[in-house]
Amino acid sequence: MACQVPEYIPAEIEPRWQRQWEAAGLYHADIDKKRPKFYALTMLPYPSGDLHIGHWYAISPSDARARYKRMNGFNVMFPIGFDAFGLPAENAAIKHNIHPRKWTYANIQKMREQFRSMGTMIDWRREIVSSDEKYYRWTQWFFIQLVKHNLAYQKLSPVDWCPHCNTTLAREQVWGDDRHCERCGTPVIKKDLKQWFFKTTRYADELVNYDGLDWPERVRTLQTNWIGRSEGALVTFKTEAGDALEVFTTRPDTLWGVTFMVLAPEHPLVEKLTTIEQRAEVDQYVLDASRQSDIQRESTEKEKSGIFTGGYAINPVNGEKIPVWISDYVLMTYGTGAIMAVPAHDERDFDFARKFYLPLRIVIQPPGLPELKSEDVTMPLPAFGTMVNSGELSGTPAEQSFRRAVEYVEKIGAGKAATNYRLRDWLISRQRYWGAPIPVVHCPNCGAVTVPEDQLPVRLPDDVEWKPTGESPLKLHPTWRFTTCPQCGKPAERETDTMDTFVCSSWYHLRYLSPDYDKGPFDPQEYDYWMPVDIYTGGIEHANMHLIYTRFFHKALRDMGLTKGNEPMLQLRNQGMVLGEDSEKMSKSRGNVVSPDDLVHTYGADATRAYLMFFARWDMGGPWSSGGIDGVMRWLRRAWSLVLEPGQTGAVNEESVKTLRRKVHQTLRSVSRDFEQFEFNTIISSLMELLNEMAHLKDSVYGSDAWKEAIEIYLQMMAPVVPHIAEELWQRIHKPYSVHTSRWPSVDEKAAADEEITLVVQLNGKVRDRITVPVDISEEEAKTRALKSDIIQKQMEGKEARQIIYVKGRLINIVV
RNA sequence: GCCGGAGUGGCGGAACUGGCAGACGCGCACGACUCAAAAUCGUGUUCCCUCGGGAGUGUGGGUUCGAUUCCCACCUUCGGCACCA
User: Which of A254, A266, A279 is nearest to A338 (CA)?
Assistant: First the structure.
C-alpha cells in the first residue's frame, strides 16, 4: 500500500522546480501600480568564492518572509548582487598569482549557482556587480557630485594605516582596545597622508535622529554612541599675547572654577605660548607624544603626564590669569584640542591637578553639607547643589547654571552654545588596486580637478603589478597615471588611490532599481515606485560602518535632489550568527565549519532552510546541531506522506472536523503573526505541531472538505519556508501552478474560535486543578464550578474563600 | 568606568498584554515492527519525593491574589565605547 507513494527525494525535485521557476520568470519584479510594492533587501555579499552557512542564515529566512509578503498581495522585489571590489581578491591574487578580476568573476559565477541551489525568489535580472564598469562609473559619478556639493575634500592628516593590508582605513574600520584592522586584525599605526574624506560630520545631527525608522534599539544605540553628540559651549579665552584660545566644554556652569588650561601637544598655539625657560621640556614632551601609539597614549590606566608651557591665559568670565599646560590626555582630534580644566568637578582634571599640585576651586557646593573648602575635596564633586564663587551665578541652584552660564558668555561676547560630535569624516582613499579609481586628475596649475562626467568611467587598468608595496599599485603603472588636465589641457597626473568599497555599497540598493540604466545612476521612475527599502536585513557588525555610510549617502543625495525622504531603509532587522557545533565561531582552523553545499547534497535546500529558521531565534543565532537537522528532515518526510498517503475512508467524524479546522486556522493565525515579527523558529514549531495533530485526526476526517482545506492551507504555509516540496505537493494534489503565486489564506475566525477552554484553578496562586468549561461561561458559573472541584474541596477543608480572582478565559484563583 | 544584549530541563529553544513554566525539536529510556539492525510508529522524559506532595526560569530583595515577564540591588557572560573635555 505505502509502496505506491513515491519517496521524498529533494535532489530530484529541487533542481527541477528551480529550473521551472526561472524559465517561467516567476520571480521577476516589475513596476505594477495596481499592487502595493515591497522592497525586501538583504546586505550585499562579498564574492569570497564559497557561499557559507552564514549567507544561508542571512538570506533564506529573508527570502521566506519576502515570499510570505508576496503571497499577501505585495509586488515584492528581492534582488541580490556582489560587493565585488576589495582586498581579499588582491590577497588571493598575490597568493595564487591570478588576476583579481579573474578570481572575483570566477567566484561570482560559482556563488550564483550556489544561490540558485538555495531556492530563493531572487530576480536575477536585477543583479549588480560593483566591479563592473557600468556600476563603478556611477560610483565615480557620485564621488564627483559629492565634491561639487562640498561634501568630499582632501586633507593631510594623521590617519590609521594597516601595515598588513597596506592601506589607510576609516576610523570606523579600526576596532577594539588594541585598535586593530577590522578586516585582518592587525594593529594599525599612524601615518601622515593626504587623503580624500567624505563629510559625514555635516549630517551628524541628523544621523542621531531615527524618526520614522523601525530599527533595532541595539543598532540605534551603537550609532548614537558612535556619533557621540554632546551639548556644551565654545568659550574663547585669550592668551597674554592676545591670541584667541578656544575650548569646547560640556560644563559651562563650571567656568568660574577653571584653575588651569590644557592643550593637546599638537595644538598650534603651543609653540607661541611656550616660554624660553620651558622650551626644552615642552619640545621633549611634544616629541615623546608624537612617538607614542594611540593605544599607549589613550590608555586610561596610565598616570597623567604633562608640562607647563610657561604661558598664561585669561578667563573671560572673571579676568583671572591661569597657567596653560600641555598633556597627551587632551586630543587634537576632538573639540578644539584645548580644554579648560576644572579639577574640583572633573575627574581627569582632578587627577592632573593632584599630580602637579595645581590649585582647585569649588564652584558647586553640594547640598546638605557644611561649606566645603578646596582642601577638603578628595574626589571631584557632582553637578548638583548651589553655585558658589561664580560671580553673578553665586547662590543660584546648579540645575539652571548651564543655561545661565551660556547666556552670560554670549552676553560678554566670549562664546556661544555649541554641539560637538565624536564622529569623524569618512576617509575613503585606499592605496590598493582592486577598487573604483578616484576620478580626479592632479594638475600642477589647477590642483585637484574632477574628471568630467562624460569621460566616466575612469577605467581600472588590467595590466597592473598589484603587489602591495605601501604605494598605490596604480602609481606604479607605466602609463595609466599620465594624462592631461581636463581644465587647462596641460600634462597632469591621475589620482592613484581607489575608493573604500563601502562607497560602492552605499548606493547599491539604488542600482538594483535599474542595473542597465545609462542616463544616470538609477531610473527615477523605478525609484518612485520601489523606494524606500521596506525591509533591510543583515548583520549587526555594520552598524557603525555601512549603515551610517548609506544613511549619509541618502541624505547627501537628497540635498542634491536625487533621492526623496530622509532615510533609505525603513525597517532593519539583524540576524545572529551560526556557530559551530562546539559553540565556537566557525573557522577552517577549528574544523567546525558546516558546508551548505554538503547539506543541500544530503538533506536538500528545503531542510537546510527550514532548520536555519528553526534552530534558534533568528536575531540571536546559536550553535549548529547535526542532529537537529535530522528532526527537520523527519518533519518534511512526514508532511510528504501526510499529503500523499491515503487515509481511511470511513465515516467522517464531525467532532474531528471541528478540531481540525480549529487547529488549522489557529496555526494560520500564529504563523502569519510570526512572519510579520521575524519569529521564524516558532513558525516551524507551529507547523510541526499542526502536522502532529493532522496525523492523529487523518483517519477520522479523510475525504472531507475540511481535510482538503487543511492540506491546501498547510502547503501554502509551508511554501515560503520550504518552497520546493510545497510546490511539488501542490502540483501532486492537482492545484493550479504555482503555490507561490497563490493567495495567502485568510483566517476563518469562526473556525479558529475555541468552544471549550481549560480554566486553571489556583489555590493561593498555586495550580490545583483544571476544569473544562464552555468559552462563554459567566464569571459566577465559573467560580461555582471551580469551588465544586473535588481537589479544591479536599484542599480547602472547610476554609473560607477570602477572595476569588477571575481572569476571563484563563484562570480562577481562590485565596484562603 | 559608561552604554546595550543575554542568562529557562541533559541540549537548541517556547511562553502574545502580569495568569497552566518547559510548546516544538534534539538526545535518552521503554515498547511495537524485524531473525537482527537501521528506518518508521507508539509511550514517557525539569528536579526531589515517603506518591500526599515539595522545589524550580543566574543570585538576593520588593510590588501583586498571582512574576520567566514589572521594580531595586548584585553576579556571570557577550558586544560596543572608553582621558571625547
Answer: A266
